[in-house]
Each structure stands twice: as C-alpha cells, then as structure tokens.
Amino acid sequence: MSEIAPHLALLRITGNVMLARCIGIAAEIGVADAIETGHGRLTTSALAKLTGSHEQALYRMMRYMAANGIFNEDAEGKFQNTDISKLLRTGVPGSMRESVRQSWQDVMWDVYKAFPHTIATGEPAFNQTYGADFFDHLAANPDMGLKFDAAMAMQSGPENASVADAYAFEQANVVVDVAGGRGGFMAALLKAYPTIRGVLFDQTYVLAQPNHVKEAGLKYRCDFVAGDFFESVPKGGDVYVLKRILHDWDDNTAIRILKNCAAAMSFTARIIAVDAVIKPGNDPDPNKALDVGIMALLKGRERTEKDFTRLYEAAGLRLTRIVATAAPSTMSLVEGVIA
To answer: Which of 141-177 are b and which e, b meaning 16 or more Cβ less than 10 Å from the residue's Cβ?
Structure first.
C-alpha cells in the first residue's frame, strides 16, 4: 500500500466495491461453471447464451475481472478460469460460490446501506434494515435462511479438517459439539479420530435436516441430542466444542452459554471455543474485517485474547491456552477448564 500515492491507494480500495459486485454476479449466473462446459475456454457469445446475459455487457464485465485476475482472456478472445474463478464453481472442493453469489450479496448490501446506523447507535444494521434480529428473521424467512446456511457451509466446510488437526482430540473419549448444526465438524472429527465418540447437540429442527455425520456413515459413533444451549447442555463430555458460536452473541449472552457448558463439565473436562482471535496492533488481520461484518449483522463480536479471558472467568472457567489453526483458516481454538 505504501508503494503508491495515498489518493490512488484510497481509490483502489473504493473501486473494489464494483469488482466485488461483478464477482457476485458471475457467481450467481454461473460463469465459472459455464466455462468448464466448453472444455475450459469459451467465447463471450457462448457464455452469454449459457448464462442468459447480454453479450457486450457480459464481455465488458469479464474483461474487467480478467484484468484483476478473476478470469483470463486469451489471444482468441476466449475466457478461461483462473485459480480464483475456479472457487466460483459449484460443488468443487473449497467452492465459495454460495458465500459470494449475488443473491446473498444483495442481502448483505442492503444491510451495509444501514451501517451508518450501527456506527451511530451500536445497534446491528440488519435490525434497522429488516425490522428483526438476524436469526429471528432467518427463521421467519426460510429462503433467506437457506441462502445463509449454504454460505456458511461453504465457509466452514474447508476449515473443519484444519480445526480437527490443530488439537489432540484423540485424548478424549467423548466430544460434545454444542450447537453443531448439520454435523460438518463432527463428521470431520470422527473421521480423523476413529477412537472417539461424538455428541451432536442442537435444536430439534436442526437435527431433523440432512446430516454430514449420517451421510459419512458415522452415526453409530455419534449421539444426536436435541436441546437449547440457553437452558443446558449434555453432561458426560471430555471436550465441549463451541465452533463459531460465541461470536454471534454479546458478552452477557456468551457468558450464559459458557456457564451452561461449565455446569455440564467435570473437573477434568475441557471447553474449546473455535472462533477468531483478533491480533493487537495495526498488523493486517482478516478477523478485524470479520468483526466489522458481525457488527453489521448481530450484537456479537470477534474477540481478543483478553476478551476471552474475561468471558471465561465470568463463567467460572480458566483460559489455559490458544491454539491457532493452519492457513487458510483464521480460526483459533480457545481452550479452558473449570476454574
């Protein structure tokens, strides 16, 4: 950033808004998938027919994205996927299509319009935009809920193996995944550690959905327990995992969840919050961007090590260590025990 003039640096950043929009549109209309139907190279004319687009408008958008490394235009005017655009394909390992496509981007951009309200009041922009809390609105609008679930699955799926590999889970007999959703992390954990048993804990309607543990043929090693972590969590676990849970909630609510976990834990059990841990200082940190995004949607936040220490102490726990996951994951495992 220091290598270019400050005003050009600022213009480059603000210009990325249009690039992000183009990526969202390309993901929505399936450009990357269409290119693969043409053996990896397609003309704009063919792309326009396959995606239902205006040929010249599509070309100008594709040319702009190619100039930024998203696609590649060859000497014959045909477009190819790059390593970046391959992530916009459907169903490939590491696909990010669902998390960047226009339909979900539209939701987020409507929220960002109201972000000045968040800065002025501290209240989520989502509530100002949609008139309800984030999760209440998703529950009342299944179509939006499905978009969110798909986007989160694309985001969390690739990191599950990294989280499982980062910690010595083999030392546990029973791992309880609190609010574990459709079991993506639990399935990765059971695959990586054949000696452990799992408990997938979530609400009844969540457990009724298609489940990764069952799809992997591992349900014989996992108990499925319905409940509400605001009331209690199952006892008997050696390790309790809260993956991407605490960042959804304000401090008082997070402490309430942690207290319920502590009430279920034995004195030898451990709790692990899998969340972003924000670095101090001015060094680049993608979790700082994640924190601002959370602020727009929810009353939760990403936290520093000091923040987690304070939360754990308030819940009757003691933070013992923080274990980083391997890149590209930016999550850390925040371990604690009964104080």
So the answer is: eeebeebbbbbbbbebbebbbbbbebbebeebebbbb
Is 247 one of the annotated active-site residues of the chain? yes
CATH assignment of the domain containing 157: 3.40.50.150
| Active-site entry in 7, 117, 212, 247 | 247
pLDDT along the chain (339 residues), means of 10: 74 84 94 93 96 96 95 95 95 85 86 94 95 90 78 75 95 97 94 97 88 94 97 97 96 98 98 96 90 94 97 98 91 97
Q: CB neighbours of 90 closer than 8 A, spacing ≥ 6?
A: 30, 33, 97
Task: Report residue 142 as tokens.
Answer: 């299944």
Backbone angles phi, psi at 147, to 5 degrees: -60, -45
Q: Which domain holds residue 10?
A: 6-88
- CATH number of the domain enclosing 23: 1.10.10.10
Q: Round to whole Å and give the CA distance between 86 and 67.
A: 16
Query: Which stretches within 38-133 are classed as H helix?
Result: 44-51, 55-66, 97-100, 102-113, 115-121, 125-130
16 inside domain = yes
Beta bridge partners of 275: 332
152 and 83 share one domain? no
